[in-house]
């Protein structure tokens, strides 16, 4: 009897304990489809362990090897997924609605990974500066935590310390960037944003030379980044209030008018268009900040100038790709029903961005600031493609981003080569006559500048042509006119640098051009090759981009 | 077999790429590599030729599409080749003569430091010329057309340290540009008329009467303009004489045997367009007839051996253009004369080069004389080329030229009589000036002069062993130079008869079409007349130069002679009409530019610059200001969004 009495009790206990657990289902994760992100995150974690356990001597090589390997493996995974049809027929939303695996996501992840590989190569460069106390030095501070000019710093330099932490930081940033354009709900978007932003703030602060400037840049970037994140987060809250969900698909449903069910807790706010519009504007502002659109661009010149140049190249290329990817998905997936509301606003932003970037760049005297303003103008051109609101608009933006990221990394890599006693010689006057002294380097830089200017037979022309064509077809003809005018203005300062390099007398105390190791050479060569390939034969890549231009919903 | 076509072009192209980028380490072997790749192309050509012969006449055209060059909606250009009987003829001529001239250049350029580069350019030329004749559409043909123009420019100006060479190269380039403009306009017209520029569809449409005669005439005249530029026909003839500044092998290959005949190729290739535009055909024949007399007259007055030959080239191409303008009765003969001319004119130029090689690079025939004893091989090969060009019965020029004269009469009507008479007159003058060259160079007394003094010596061709102040020691050239001359002489002798009896006309017929002309004069009468005028020309020249000593300094001469020495005032004409007119036009444009355009431009630039300076001040470096601007921006963004909804 006692035995029969005990058994149901145990059973009840067991079921009551098991009941609540049943209600939280184990998340369903498609590991294969998320493998690019997972590989990079895994490598980043291993990379942190490397910092802790691998002896200092071997650390640099281990980190470089690990990072490149992880990025290449992740790229291979992206290619594998795309080949497996996840970019087109099998595109769907993975990880319980959080991450989209579709054409645009895979294309942009591929671009981010490739530019990250090139960026890591420039990070690893240790032959530009002469050895310090018998230790090879790279672009990063010996000990980032040491106060600039302090005894601690001198001791660190003497001991040959290097900040190999840049590699795990980069990997974490890349992981965030991979998720950013694929994020399919607002919270994932925000988390991805923070995951890639925080490492970038740190990376900006660790320049080996001009450390105060570097730290100032990092602080500014951090402050303004946090400021814009706050806006973004607030916008997310408002959108949740409007739709009762943070999922893109749900919000889109509410926007288009077929609300499935009103959450009783949100009965007051759901479907309130004011919330939608304000929330939209705030989220958009967070994204515009990341791409550096006017008037949210003001951090760009200061940060680009202060950050270590390889980091600037990485940031300028990869961040822009990730942020534009996220913006495309946000506008095209969440707000297709709102196109007529967001287009005029974006028109305004695109126009001031194109003109502002191009006009202010004219009076710049520092090559890194010049490139920063150039990147602002380019953000404007890309926005013109975004505004098209058509599939060709998407594919043109994808192509432009791919073209632009290679040019950017290559151009900043060239900037690292031109040096004088104080490190990189970034003042434009120092570049006078560079073409006479180092014709090859000057010619390569000229190729990049021509690509920035959008001269035919470079990728810049193909990209600009694609976005302007998409914009014109999408009914934004006036925008194209402004775009062409600002291209003309922009051409002035790009060509001016070429004139300066080739037709000015070299200065007696001019900078020397450092002979890089194979690492930077590979990065620059890849930049040139891609720039010319996309200029001479853009069709294959345009086709690729247009195959990848459909968002999964 | 189709896949071999691309290799024809690829081999010399590879050579050009390797030689031009390979750097100094290739200096020792570069010329061998260049020659080898030209020869490879020739061998591939022979293989394809053998294959083609094995097929029936209608089935001989091969196609190969490499890839789509420019795929845009409504506009598609392929990198595609077409090898038919016409292209095949050119391929064999280009690669065959090309290879011989590569071999010749090994000896001729032996002492030149930049020999590797020279061979790179030669290979580039061969590749571009093959592309030109193998293209299956006009756009790709245009690519080759510009390619040979580039190679010609580089090679004319090869000795760029001589200002005359640099100027000549520039002149050739500029004059050719006028013709190239014609080709590009023709292609555009084709595209708007037919929607394509591939040979097949365009020519079928033209033959099928899909376009109005007016449009076809326009296209045909533009093609003729292009042909005039490349083939040095009046009115774009002025560059060819100066082009002789290039090394002699270049003159032989590019400016005699192959490139200058590209215009003839273009007309024959576009036969269907010209057939449907009789007015344009008439213009073609007029251009041909005028040029053949023009070149011949100029050739009579020149004392520079290469320039005399250049005049002759112009004149002979005039014959080809004339024949091409006659339509189906003349196309095949134009090409036949083109090929025989390729042999004997290349041979004559190589002979001239050999003479110069032995005479310290002297080019003035008045300073030659009696060279036959010193250069027996050159004398014999040059002599055979001479007999061929004047149309000595049995040699190759006889067959091809006789046919053209006959076809000219067969045009019918008054035109036929005038054209035929011009062609006959041309034959007489040809015999005259070529006999003059022959006698002044190889017969008579020695009129040799000491080599030029050292300051001038800097400008002589580096191939020479010049000893300033000494009399030249004429000697036979090395084997690498005489061998190609001998082979070309064989062609000069035998090609005409071979073509006549092996059925060259039937071979080309599927491509060019052929009709028998009905001449008002019988074939025998024309042949007799041709031979008679030829003998007349030879006789007059003999009386003038063979019987009397040749003065070492040219006599003043009649008005015509003086005008002919100045190329019948072609440059003066161009100067007065185009250069001066152009100068006035540009001056007035510059005035407008300075006073009006610059004002606007500089004003805009200044205001943009000022704006930039002001905007730059917003960037003050304080994070707080940046934050304010972001905040303000967001506020504006929100306001604008709400406003849009309200509106």
What oligomeric state is this? heterodimer
Overall mean pLDDT score of chain A? Answer: 90
**Helical stretch tally of chain B:** 25
Distance between the termini of chain B: 70 Å
Tally of extended strands of chain B? Answer: 2
> How much is the radius of gyration of chain A in Å?
25 Å
Globally, the shape of chain B reads globular
Q: How much helix, percentage-wise, in residues of chain A? A: 55-70%
The Rg value of chain B, from CA coordinates, equals 28 Å
Uncertain segments of chain B: 454-465
Count the beta strands of chain A.
Answer: 5
User: How would a textbook summarize the main sheet of chain B?
Assistant: 2 strands, antiparallel
Strand content of chain B: under 5%
H/E element sequence of chain A: HHHEEHHHHHHHHHHHHEEHHHHEHH
Strand content of chain A: under 5%
**Overall body shape of chain A:** globular
Chain-wise SSE layout:
The complex is a heterodimer of chains A (553) and B (647).
Chain A: H1 2-23, H2 35-53, H3 56-83, E1 92-94, E2 99-101, H4 103-123, H5 151-159, H6 166-179, H7 186-204, H8 211-243, H9 248-256, H10 273-291, H11 299-306, H12 309-334, H13 339-361, H14 367-387, H15 391-417, E3 418-420, E4 423-424, H16 434-437, H17 439-453, H18 459-473, H19 477-503, E5 512-513, H20 518-536, H21 539-547
Antiparallel strand pairs in A: 1-2, 3-4, 3-5
Chain B: H1 4-21, H2 30-53, E1 62-72, E2 75-83, H3 85-108, H4 115-134, H5 138-156, H6 163-194, H7 199-207, H8 213-230, H9 239-242, H10 248-257, H11 262-269, H12 271-275, H13 278-301, H14 305-325, H15 331-358, H16 376-390, H17 396-410, H18 413-442, H19 454-457, H20 479-502, H21 504-512, H22 523-546, H23 559-565, H24 570-616, H25 623-646
Antiparallel strand pairs in B: 1-2
Helix pairs in contact in B: 1-2, 1-4, 2-3, 2-4, 3-4, 3-10, 3-15, 3-20, 4-5, 5-6, 6-8, 8-11, 8-13, 10-15, 11-14, 13-14, 13-18, 13-23, 14-15, 14-17, 14-18, 15-16, 15-17, 15-20, 15-21, 16-18, 16-20, 17-18, 17-20, 18-22
